[in-house]
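Researcher: Let's continue the batch. This sequence belongs to DNA-binding transcriptional ArsR family regulator, and it's 106 residues. Same format as the previous ones, please.
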Amino acid sequence: MRRDVFQAIADPTRRAILALLALHAMTPNAIAEHFDSSRQAISKHIKILTECQLVNQEQSGREIHYHFNPQKMKEVDTWVAQFRAQWESRFDQLDELLKNQNHKQS
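Model: Same format as before. Here are the C-alpha cells for DNA-binding transcriptional ArsR family regulator:
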C-alpha cells in the first residue's frame, strides 16, 4: 500500500518520533527507548516514515541513524496554508466586530 505524508503524520507515535528526530539523528534503539511500545512496533513506524520520505537513514558503521527530512513537511504546510489565510481573515473580522461592539457600549 502506498502511503502519503498525511497518513504518516496521522499517527501520534509517528508524530512523536518526528519530534524526536527534529532535535537530532537517532538510532532505532534510541528512538524505541522513548516509547512503551515494542521495538518491533517502533520499527514499523520508522519504516512508514521512511517510505513517506519524512525521515532519511544513514548507515554509520554497524548502526543506522535516522534523520528528519523537513523538506517533505512542506507538502503539509502548503495544504494548511490555504486554510490559514481563511482563518486569519475570519479572526480579523471577529476582532473588528468586537472593537465595534466595545465602542457602542462606551
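Researcher: Any comment?
Model: The chain has one domain: 5-103.
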